Amino acid sequence: MRCRSALTRIDAMRTGELPAQESTAVHQHLKKCRSCDESVTDLSALTSTIKELVVPSPRSLKSTCTDHFDVIDADGEQVVVAFSDRGLRMIKISASVDELRAQYCERFGRELTESALPERLRKQVIAALSGEGVDKPVVDFTDVGDFERKVLEILTRIPRGEVRTYTWVARQAGNPKAVRAVGNICARNVVPFVVPCHRVVPASGGVGQYAFGASAKRALLQREGVPIEELDDLARRGVRYVGSKTTNIYCFPTCKDARRIREGNFVPFHDEREAAKKGFRPCKRCQPAAA
Questions:
Q1: Which one of 33, 65, 105, 197 is the catalytic residue?
Q2: Distance of CA 245 to the CA centre of its chain
Q3: What 8-state DSSP symbol labels residue 289?
Q4: What average pLDDT does the chain have?
Q5: Which of 133, 188, 192, 256 lies 20 to 30 angstroms, CA to CA, from 266?
Q6: Coil, strand, or helix at residue 65?
Q7: φ and ψ at 186, to 5 degrees?
Q8: Of the segments 7-11, 12-16, 267-271, which one has the largest average pLDDT value?
Q9: Edge-to-edge, what's the strand order for the sheet holding 87-93?
Q10: β partners of residue 130
Q11: Residue 201 forms beta bridges with which residues?
């Protein structure tokens, strides 16, 4: 058997489609012809490499992949919730199912089918909307970019009754200059309340912008225990941090530890440099200075 004839029969031999007599002839040729034998070896290596390069299609491209939605009543509001087998994906208040489906498809490229919201997720949505807060939100961050996912995960760790600044979130996310990007991520948060973007405020004071309006943000924070009027007063005075004379530690004003400072030990600071200059160190709990 000549080289050309042997090589044209290789694939059929590998798949078992080549008659036994011809297969034997090909094997005999490969034993005698070093060039053809090396070619077959190279072909096998290439085939193996190609198989390793194959990856599963993204979830958004799988026509058979479908997430779910349910309509529930939470704190007197009709809430449409989209979710996957991994957790909550989108929450819309006083919206129609068609609106949710359209926005969900545009955002994630996936369809929704109606299904009962798992009890654990239902309780989290209701707790978040009622102001109780959620300690460990079950949210599916699939299809979210790395930095956006990092920011959203940081938001879930801001305690109920406390606020942090956009600058702080950017620092925690590892990019201190990305303050505007953090603001944009908060603005397009599709799992509001459960992922508490309302707990992020401007460093200059005030509550800042919110998808449901500043007044709704203030009401929600007050319901969670944030001393809004006290924050307003501090903002008017330009106070960003508060310290304790007894510990020489300074915090965000809403930090759990800061709320324990007695009036006689209370020290206001306009910025981190002022606190450091007076010998105060940042609180390890709320980390006001740096991540």
A1: 197
A2: 38
A3: S
A4: 85
A5: 133
A6: coil
A7: -65, -40
A8: 267-271
A9: 87-93, 77-84, 66-74, 111-114
A10: none
A11: 165
Return the SS3 of 268. strand
Share above pLDDT 90 across residues of the chain, in percent, rounded to a whole number = 62
Active site residue 197: yes
Residue range 203-222: mean pLDDT, rounded: 88
Residue 268 near residue 234 (C-beta atoms within 8 A):
yes
**Cβ–Cβ < 8 Å for 279, 242:** no
- Residues 155 and 153: their CA atoms lie apart, in Å, by 5
- Domains recognised in the chain with CATH numbers: 3-53 (no CATH), 66-130 (3.30.160), 144-238 (1.10.10.10), 239-291 (3.40.10.10)
In Å, how far are 21, 57, 281 from 223, measured between CA atoms?
A: 84, 44, 31
Mean of pLDDT values over 173-194? 93
β-pairing, 66-74 with 111-114?
parallel
**What's residue 38's pLDDT?**
62
Q: Give Rg (Cα) of the chain.
A: 30
Residues 6+ apart with CB under 8 A from 108: 60, 67, 89, 143
